[in-house]
Amino acid sequence: MVKIVSVRVPDDVSEEDVVRWVLEGLARRMAKRLALKYLEEGVDIDLEKALKDFEETRSEVWRELEKEYKRMGIL
Q: How many Å apart are CA 70 and CA 37, to the nearest integer?
């Protein structure tokens, strides 16, 4: 089921930007639900590996965000 809503954004914000923001918000909500589900069920996790993977992923994501922010002139 979908809903159409009107949103006012600055002139320099494209429809693709708005769609991306909505999808990012939905992804966060879905990830939170999945994480809670797995925590409730109990998950066998290697915490050392999970922390290392998290740190590596966070660094990769930050590098990509940094590139995009520089391209946009934010940084």
A: 37
Alpha-carbon distance 70 to 75, whole Å? 5
Complete DSSP assignment for 10-55: -TT--HHHHHHHHHHHHHHHHHHHHHHHHHHH-----HHHHHHHHH
Which tokens sit at 71? 């391209």
pTM of the model: 0.48
Amino acid found at 75: L
Compute the distance between CA of residue 42 and CA of residue 14 in angstroms, rounded to an integer.
42
Summarize pLDDT for 11-46 with one digit per residue, the tens: 999 988 998 888 888 888 888 888 888 878 877 778
In this structure, what token pair is assigned to residue 46?
């290697």
**Do 18 and 9 form a contact (C-beta atoms < 8 A)?**
yes
The SS3 assignment for 71 reads helix
